[in-house]
Amino acid sequence: MAYQSPLAHSHHVLPQLGDLHIDELGSRHIAELQLHLRDRALAPGTIDAVIQSALRGMLRDAELAGYRTPEIRKLYDTRFIVRQDRGREMSEIDPFTDEERERIIEWFLRNRPHYHAFVYFRFWTGTRPSEAIGLRCRDVDLKARRIRIRRSRVCRHDGPPKTGKSKRDVVIHDQLVTVLLSRMSLDPEPDAFVFTTVTGAAIEESTFVRREWLPALRPLRIRPRPFYNTRHTYISSLLAAEDKPLFVCRQTGTSLEMIERHYADARFSAEQLDRLLSATSG
Description:
Radius of gyration: 21 Å
Low-confidence stretches: 1-9
Order of helices and strands: HHHHHHHEEEEEHHHHHH
Number of domains: 2
Distance between the termini: 81 Å
Number of helices: 13
CATH class of the largest domain: Mainly Alpha
Helix content: 40-55%
CATH topology of the largest domain: hpI Integrase, Chain A
Number of strands: 5
CATH superfamily of the largest domain: Intergrase catalytic core
CATH architecture of the largest domain: Orthogonal Bundle
């Protein structure tokens, strides 16, 4: 009988691995599972949570329970099994323009008002999707205009933020306070999610992207980009406004090296160059 674990019943895994015995598992099966999850448009971080965390944990539990398991090093052969989320922040920075950002926000306000605050929040805090999805009401201090980032939510489970620097307080502007006030009750339950689906459940990034995000970009005729790129937009907008890179790092939980290497010239416009040349020649 195959070893049964909570993971074996997951709708992400069962169609591919549910009928296998643990000692039958090979790199081919994991590679096929990765491909299956990518075809379902799951976020790279979600795929890694299933493959690199949950599945590894299941194998460890099976070995402790006395089952014969494959050798992890050989099973996760890096020639075939590659982390999907590796270097996502280091990939090509492709932010939305200011005009695109405003049109997207307006579209959600008019057509999908339930998700308007969620999209607005992402564009104007630079949080990672998992950080915004995992946000609880107790993490929001509208009076002090601060958001406490203390967790991320991936694959329906809460976990720590991505890195040590990701644990932070984000300062928010007054317009975002107004938007959040329209979304939150005056006396919310501390553990309630700030952003939910229409039915009140926690948001899943891949489902939101498939059902809400991409369908919003199509009628606007905006070139499709990942929902993650709202973070790129926020960072590059702050830098274009000549905010200090160290402040941007603290707001977004990224390193100064990352900012300088990947974002420094992402939004430097011809108009900014004109102003710079004018100032130096005056």
